[in-house]
Design goal:
Length: 238
């Protein structure tokens, strides 16, 4: 990614693209057990919500997508892991880890439904994950910095986002398998391995964790072919 692209990603959003996201600051209100605050329609964000809330500036899914398309029309995302039925893997707390690729660079992001259910939950997970991953590229980073560390003084620490250990087991195994076959093909020099992987993938790869599953499989397949041919001929790769 060049400097111009990185700068375009981090460019501030115009005021008309920044929305107001309500966040309840009263723990009892969040647990629907508060006797001190009433619920009514907010004139700022339009939500029917506890009067004890604040507004966080945020960029919506449409505005984020527009920014990514402006910078890289071929940007893409994919889940870190897949479920047995072929759908993206949802972890034990209802969230999803993704890989967002922009201008050839891939970074992780995590999304959560924030209490929503059904189809709305799925859309919220994707949008939240994209915003989280895009933040790693500096998109709307100034807005993220404005978020308060805690919503209230009495709130318990927010549950930490689940690490993708179980979700990425198959990816880790695939990476290990790829490395084993590359070594089996006689490639041990780091620069040689990097050149081999980049040639097969067709782009500059920033480490195995930035690779898509299909890319890992392609590299593994080619390394397996080289190793098999080398073994059959009784020699090394030339």
């Amino acid at each position: 990614m060049n400097e111009e692209t990185a700068k375009a990603l981090r460019a501030p959003f115009p005021d008309e693209d920044i929305g107001k996201l309500p966040r309840v600051t009263c723990k009892a209100c969040r647990e629907r057990s508060c006797q001190n605050h009433r619920t009514q329609k907010c004139q700022v964000c339009g939500s029917y919500i506890s009067t004890q809330h604040i507004h966080l500036d945020y960029v919506g899914h449409a505005e984020l997508t527009d920014r990514l398309l402006q910078v890289d029309p071929e940007w893409t995302w994919e889940p870190v892991a897949w479920s047995a039925d072929g759908t993206p893997h949802i972890d034990a707390v209802g969230g999803m880890w993704i890989r967002l690729t922009v201008a050839g660079v891939t970074r992780l992001g995590y999304g959560h439904p924030d209490g929503k259910r059904g189809g709305d939950a799925v859309k919220e997970i994707i949008g939240d994950a994209l915003r989280n991953a895009a933040m790693r590229f500096g998109v709307a980073l100034d807005l993220w910095r404005r978020e308060p560390a805690h919503l209230d003084d009495t709130a318990e620490p927010e549950q930490q986002q689940a690490t993708p250990t179980a979700a990425t087991t198959d990816i880790d195994n695939a990476i290990k398998n790829m490395r084993d076959w590359i070594a089996g093909a006689g490639m041990t020099d780091r620069d040689e391995v990097r050149a081999f992987v980049n040639k097969i993938v067709g782009r500059e790869v920033d480490g195995p964790q930035s690779m898509r599953r299909t890319e890992i499989e392609r590299v593994t397949q080619r390394a397996r072919e080289i190793a098999t041919e080398s073994k059959a001929s009784g020699g090394g790769e030339s």
